[in-house]
Amino acid sequence: MDGWAVLADAAEMARRGEPFALATVVWRQGPSSSQQGSRAIITAAGELRGWIGGACAEPSVIREAQRVIATGEAKLLLLGSPEQFGSTGRFGGEVPDGMLVVPIACSSEGALEVYIEPVVPVPHLVVVGRSPMANTLADLARTLGWRADLIDGPDFSAADADERSMIVVASQGHNDEGLLERAIAARPAYLGLVGSHKRGAAVLGYLADRGVPRDQLERVRVPAGLDLGTTTHQEIAVAILAELVQLRASGALADAGSNGAQGEMAGRQQHGPAPQPTEAIDPVCGMTVAAGPDSLQVEYGGGTYYFCGVGCRQAFERDPSAHVKQLLTTRARHDADQE
Fold first, then answer.
1. Which residues contact 282 (CB under 8 A, 6 or more apart)?
2. CA torsion 245→251→257→260, rounded to 10°?
């Protein structure tokens, strides 16, 4: 997948509402298998699509990209050997603030500068109904840059939304029960019904009698929106949108297009952490490497150590105790950098 194909794939993923990170090579020092302008998509699960570099750079880029997705903050990485960051290196020994240095050790002796940016899906709001309030709510959501679908009641189905969507049923008494039942089937991040407390109780009671699970009915907000008292239809739309913004900002609607690190981490707590690739630190060169059955490895002192190449494994075998001590120092430094 070349650079332009990566961008096309990224646009499609964003349209589907899938969070991911986009990595771009902005500088390289040869010899390197990557080229300036090379791009890759990294998913929250650690899947890489595209090309960002060989076996030395790829694990580090994937690891940092997953952190970018989790925090919502972009990173600029400098990947290379420690010697390349010295007084004769790219920055004369003084790495600019905000750049993360990731030591890697490869026989090619190449280096890369990679910019990783998070791509968080925009919120998706589905407004069911054709009332003036429904039109106003959809228009207001679009002014925030949200994706807002306005669907007439008879045309609405559970397929129009998913677990990331927010649904507001504003059918004004026209088949509220049937529409709400379809909306519940989509299991959206938010589901609200526009109507009074009395009307809401009647609708939910009817659905309970039909066998709709109680835990799903308890997720329905009736009436939808912040309680502003007696208001106009425009103000009701504002109250609903204000509630959605408030819930997203607090992290309560993590699936509905996370709003920074707080929303994403809330989603991780609800659904479990994204699968992480198995990694280890090479005790000789300090780079992050894959830790799997096919990786270069050595058993020592009751532990298993993994290596980026044969050279590092041979160096470890010559003096394993010294390199184990070095590994402990590297881990401590890495933990301090993350703090």
1. 105, 288, 289, 305, 306, 307, 308, 312
2. 100
- For residues 150 and 124, the answer to whether their CB atoms sit within 8 Å is no
pLDDT at 333 (0 to 100):
65
Phi-psi region of 275 (alpha: psi -120 to 50; beta: other; left: phi over 0): beta
Considering the domain architecture, whether residues 135 and 249 belong to the same structural domain is answered as yes
Are the beta carbons of 225 and 240 closer than 8 angstroms?
A: yes
* DSSP letter for each residue of 288-330: EEE-STTSEEEEETTEEEEESSHHHHHHHHHSHHHHHHHHHHH
- What does the block give as tokens for 211? 């066998």
**Dihedral angle at the C-alpha atoms of 109, 113, 119, 120, nearest 10 degrees?**
90
Q: In whole angstroms, what is the distance from residue 179 CA to residue 94 CA? A: 61
- Residue 167 and residue 84 share a domain: no
Q: What is the pLDDT of residues 169-228, one digit of tens each?
A: 999 889 999 999 999 999 999 999 999 999 999 999 999 999 999 999 999 999 999 988
Task: Answer yes or no: do 116 and 226 share one domain.
Answer: no
CA pair distance 222, 240, nearest whole angstrom: 11
Same domain, 116 and 239: no
Q: Which of 221, 243, 272 is the last residue of a domain?
A: 272
> Which residue carries 């589905």 as its tokens?
126
Q: What is the pLDDT of residue 313?
A: 86
DSSP state of 155: G
Distance of alpha carbon 126 from alpha carbon 186, whole angstroms? 11
Report pLDDT digits (tens) over 259-301: 433 344 334 333 344 444 477 888 887 777 778 887 889 999 8
As a whole number, the mean pLDDT across the chain is 83
The pLDDT of residue 250 is 85
Looking at the fold, whether 144 and 249 belong to one and the same domain comes out as: yes
